[in-house]
Amino acid sequence: MATIIVEVMLKPEILDPQGQAVASALPRLGFNFAKAVRQGKRFEIEVDGQPTPAQMEQVQDAAHKLLSNPVIETYVIRVEK
Amino acid sequence: MAFRVGVVTFPGSLDDRDAARAVEMAGGTAVPLFHASDDLKEVDAVVLPGGFSYGDYLRCGAIARFAPIMESIIVAAEHGFPVLGICNGFQVLCESHLLPGALTRNQGLHFLCRDQKLKIENTNTFWTSGFSQGQEIVIPLKNGEGSFQCDDETLNMLESEGRIIARYVDFDPNGSRNLIAGISNARGNVVGLMPHPEHAIESLTGPSQDGLIFFTSALKQLVGR
Fold this sequence. Notes:
The structure holds 2 protein chains of 2 kinds. Helix content of chain A is 30%, strand content 31%. Chain A is of the alpha+beta class. Chain A has one domain (2-80): Phosphoribosylformylglycinamidine synthase subunit PurS (Mth169, Chain: A). The longest helix of chain A has 15 residues, at 53-67. Chain A is elongated and about 45 Å long. Chain A starts with a strand and ends with a strand. Chain B has a single domain (4-223), classed as 3-Layer(aba) Sandwich (Rossmann fold), CATH 3.40.50. Helix content of chain B is 22%, strand content 25%. Chain B has 5 helices and 11 strands; from the N terminus they run βαββαβαββββαβββα. Chain B is an alpha/beta fold. Chain B is globular, with a radius of gyration of 16 Å. In chain B, helix 2 (68-77) links the parallel strand 3 (45-48) and strand 4. In chain B, strands 2-1-3-4-11-10-9-6-7 form a 9-stranded mixed sheet, with helices on both faces. The A-B interface holds A 10, 13-15, 17-18, 21, 66-67, 69, 71-72 and B 58-59, 62, 66, 94-95, 100-102, 104-109, 147, 149-151, 175.
């Protein structure tokens, strides 16, 4: 069994008020390392065996059509064993 | 015979009954449409109401876009069928790519619920023809993810083609680009609006009766066809 990871992030030019809220909360807890924070989504998709190139193509299609909104987001896909 | 305006109910829709009531008050016949059926029941136009379809899971409107009823609506809208999306309905229209751009989390992160002043900027659409150019109206705004975002190219296109149908007046409540409260497609049959006209149709319960004009505009357009 393998896990396909799809990570979705807002494009850099899209305002991320959630990330900004996290960035401003960190110093209040004494964490002063963060210059900026962006918040995103992570999908873990379990599949039987190693995904075939055809399956990966389908995942790419799904990431484009459903898991992300290409108007405001980008995604990266990778496989973990 | 009264014209038939469909109002779609998704799981999690909230304002479908108010939208149906607005249709009836404008002189039309409201026809309930259900997300799980692709049957448009021979309606003349459709309203996608506000609420939290499918719990707003994944992104607002992202899952509603794939409902059977939306497949019929998307095909029809591309051929000139009139569609008004309010709030969550606007989000569904953007996710369906019937309208450009996307609605994202309000800049201040708070859920907003207020009477909002708007300026009508385009009276040439199916849903805004009853307004006068530049008319200022007050209708409720209530959303958590109402910040209209798009790239510069899309923004320039919307501005140059006059497709911004309404803007927020005085200040930007949610971080929307260029104060955008509502837009239309190129043909003017599809309109998305973040504030809620269906909550401003009677003086007893709304801040004004301005919202009714969206619905009477549509019915007058149908008569003229």
